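Friendly challenge for the regulars: who can give me the structure tokens for this chain first? No prize, just bragging rights.
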Amino acid sequence: AVVSTQSTGVFVGTSEGYIHVFTRDVSVNEWCDNDPLTKKLGNNSICAMLPIGGHMWCSCGCQIFVISPENVTVEHLFSTHNNTSAQVYKMVNSGSGVWLAIRNSPVIRLFHAKTGEHLEDYDISTVVHHLFTGSQNSSRRRRAENVRVTALLASSSTGALWIGTSSGVVVVVPIAKPPVAPKICGPPFLSYMGHYDGVRFLMQAQSRIRKLIEAQSTDQENVYEEITSQVIISCGKGMEDFRDHSTAMMGQSEHILNSSYLIVWHYPVSDENS
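First reply, four minutes later:
Bragging rights claimed.
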């Protein structure tokens, strides 16, 4: 099941194509868990839900249903792909656009958040293939053959779309800032640190670090400066440095290759963004 929340209630999507909306009875401050609002959207699983502009975007197969949370009615419906068997399973919002990923595909697609108009496609397979070119590692060559998008994150603080891949590589592409649509506006960046297997998720958080500033003389006291930064976190199996084109990774222990690792990137926040 997929769960998403709004001020009006909790949305639950099921593998049978239903959405259930659980609301709260404010008079007694209790959840109405015995009588949810229910609607069937289709025969495919509800793989992703995203609250946008007071509505809930729900993916069912290759279709997007824009749902009114008050009465669970479909206010807008559009298809995201010519292939009716395609399945939308990741969605992120950035300004006036929504980027989404199709299951088992290297292509992400941008749609307008209000009209559902298709605006742009971006294929990540080329940049991942380029990173692994010349690698002596058979595992990397194999992972470059069938690249898929496995995670998405739109970060306003970094002005970029972060894309996790099935090969363990994290691709970062700059996107335009509001009020224009968040189309890709520059060349991609690749993180040389990645995972041995697919990126499971990407998330953003804020970090505050106290930095010690030592006194310059004996009549002064040490002070601490608080530094704020945005933290981007990826999770996946194992961790490796893609700059190493040798077969050294094959000598890593099973514990390293099979354990889940987090990779953290810090981005300082300027005063105007903090």
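The chain has three helices and 23 strands. The longest strand covers residues 199-213. Your move, everyone else.
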